[in-house]
Design brief:
85% helix; mainly alpha; elongated
Length: 75
Amino acid sequence: MIWHVHNENFILDSTRIFMKAFHLLLFNGSFIFPECILIFGLILLLLINSNSDKNDRPWFYFISATSLVISITYN
């Protein structure tokens, strides 16, 4: 039981360390984050396009416009 609690605390601590490093990498004056938004938007468009029945055309415009606006306003 003690090992389980210790292991759980280790997982929580390592998750906190990873989140701090991730936050510093992307949000602390980095220029990577806007490009990540655009790439994520493109991946989302590809997933919707491959799984849709071609009636979801307004979603394409909404997702691409939203990712572009977020990417531009971030800088």
